[in-house]
Structure formats: structure tokens, C-alpha cells
Design a protein that fits this description.
This protein has 287 residues and is of the alpha+beta class. 15% of the residues lie in helices and 12% in strands. The longest helix is centred in the first third of the chain and has 13 residues. The protein is rod-shaped.
């Protein structure tokens, strides 16, 4: 009978080295796989379930509590590499010893560090694990296990679903407002005044009067012409505002869903030997 053992490593190189050590130790191990973010079934958020097993879907003999599986999944999400191997029951101790000597992450200590920094998934991470490497029983609906007394028992796991309702942000559309500068030709008219200096010579034939006694005095006349030219200036004024804002409203949405649970009905046959198992007349169902 085979049992799946698991071990977490900080990087793939350490996991590859541990896989080689496991093979070199001649441990009776099959289906040795490495799982990281590139593996099938990996999810960036959320955790596996009995219906959606995620990266555990390729591990045929992995039966473990949710806390254990989710802790290893968190390790992979944080960049680690998970090693799984199906090991014969007689070789479990040797396989665990080989992996613990291969730079394996102590999952209990690591999960405690995660919780101290805010990770709070699961009640007790990696409960029952052996620190660095853990051995999981067979994963299935009807599971056979050998007890320490050599007796054989058949186990039917009782599975119950819980409805988990959460929230996520989705896009409801939006608006984009972009401002840009445009130029518009403007035509205006303005009247300008210009002066001009003219010099004319006129013929005059008049006698010189006494008042013009200084007619032979030298003199100079200065006259300046002025003109106007257009001066263009600009001033800017705020004429309008575009305001972009958003408001939020809350509403209550009713969620109607179904959850499943495995129920068990036990039938006892009192006529059979108590050391044998059998089915007959049904007593009161026990769930």
C-alpha cells in the first residue's frame, strides 16, 4: 500500500535536488512530481476544495485535511516548489528522512511566520505534519486503511459543503475626459492715424515790412510726423469647468445556492456473527 508524502522547498533547484536524493536512496517511490506556479491547476487566489482539487488533481493518493493542503498551496503561491511522491508504507520513514536532509522548509514554522505577518487562512496550518515532510493517506471516496493492530477498516469520509459568499470589484464602465488646446483664427479691425510732413515752396511778391527786420536771420524749423501701429495682446479667462466625480451606492443581493453533504445510513444484521460485516434489516438510520 502506498502513501503520498509531501515536502515544500523555497525554490525549484532545491526541489530537484531532493527528488534526485530520493531516487539515489533507492526508496520505493513512484509518481514523484514537482509542483509550482507553472503546474496545471495552480491558482493565484483561492484554495482547493474536494470538487476543485487544483494542483492536487494530478496527485492520485493525496488525502489530507484542508488546512494542510491550503498551507502547501500558500507556499507554492509565495514562490516555493512542492514535491509529492507515492511511497510504499515500509519506506515512509526512510523517504521522510531523506527529504528532511534536503533543505526542506519546516512548514509549521513557515506557516507561523505567515500568520504573524497577516496570513490567517485555516485554523491550524499543516496540522499533524512532521515539520519538514508530511505523509498523507490515500485520497478517495472509499478509502482502505490498515490499523496498527493489523485489522482492516473501510472509511467513508463525511463531506459537507459550506457556502462562502465574498465580494470582488468588477468594471461597470467609466468615462475619460481629455483636455487639449485648439486654435481658432480671429479677425478684427482697428483704425490707425498716421501723420506726414509736407514741404512746399510758394511764389510770393510782397514788400518787406518793418516787422520783418530780421528777415535775414538764420532759422531752423523741426517738425516730426507721428503714426499709430496695432499692438496685439491676449488675456486668458476661465469660462467653464468640467468636473469628474463618482458616487457609490450599496444594495443587498440575495444569494440562492445549494450545498451538499454526505449522509450515511447504517443497516445492522443482528443474526450475523459480530466479527463479520453484513447488511440486512435496517435499524434506525444513523447519520
Amino acid at each position: 500500500m502506498a502513501t503520498t508524502i509531501t515536502a515544500l522547498f523555497d525554490n525549484r533547484a532545491d526541489a530537484e535536488a531532493a527528488k534526485q536524493r530520493l531516487q539515489d536512496a533507492r526508496v520505493d517511490a513512484d509518481h514523484v512530481h514537482l509542483h509550482d506556479k507553472s503546474s496545471a491547476g495552480y491558482r493565484e487566489d483561492g484554495y482547493s476544495s474536494h470538487e476543485d482539487r487544483g494542483i492536487w488533481d494530478s496527485v492520485k493518493n493525496a488525502f489530507a485535511p484542508d488546512e494542510d493542503r491550503h498551507t502547501y498551496e500558500e507556499g507554492v503561491r509565495r514562490g516555493g516548489t512542492l514535491l509529492t511522491a507515492d511511497v510504499d508504507d515500509d519506506c515512509i520513514d526512510e523517504a521522510v528522512r531523506v527529504l528532511e536532509d534536503a533543505n526542506t522548509v519546516d512548514i509549521d514554522d513557515r506557516s507561523s511566520q505567515w500568520r504573524s505577518s497577516g496570513w490567517n487562512h485555516g485554523a491550524t496550518a499543516a496540522a499533524g505534519s512532521a515539520g519538514a515532510a508530511a505523509a498523507f493517506g490515500s485520497y478517495g471516496n472509499d478509502t482502505d486503511r490498515d490499523t496498527v493492530r493489523g485489522e482492516r477498516e473501510e472509511v467513508i469520509p463525511i463531506v459537507e459543503e459550506n457556502l462562502v459568499v465574498g465580494k470582488r470589484d468588477v468594471s461597470r464602465g467609466g468615462v475619460r475626459v481629455r483636455s487639449y488646446v485648439s486654435e481658432t483664427p480671429v479677425h478684427e479691425q482697428i483704425r490707425l492715424r498716421n501723420e506726414r510732413v509736407d514741404v512746399q515752396r510758394r511764389s510770393v511778391d510782397l514788400p518787406l515790412s518793418a516787422a520783418d527786420g530780421d528777415a535775414f536771420r538764420e532759422r531752423t524749423i523741426d517738425m516730426t510726423a507721428t503714426g499709430e501701429e496695432a499692438v496685439v495682446g491676449k488675456n486668458a479667462r476661465v469660462v467653464e469647468e468640467v468636473v469628474v466625480s463618482k458616487t457609490a451606492e450599496e444594495h443587498v443581493e440575495n444569494i440562492d445556492e445549494t450545498v451538499r453533504r454526505t449522509d450515511v445510513e447504517i443497516e445492522r444484521d443482528s443474526d450475523l456473527d459480530t466479527n463479520r460485516s453484513g447488511f440486512g434489516t435496517s435499524d434506525k438510520p444513523v447519520i
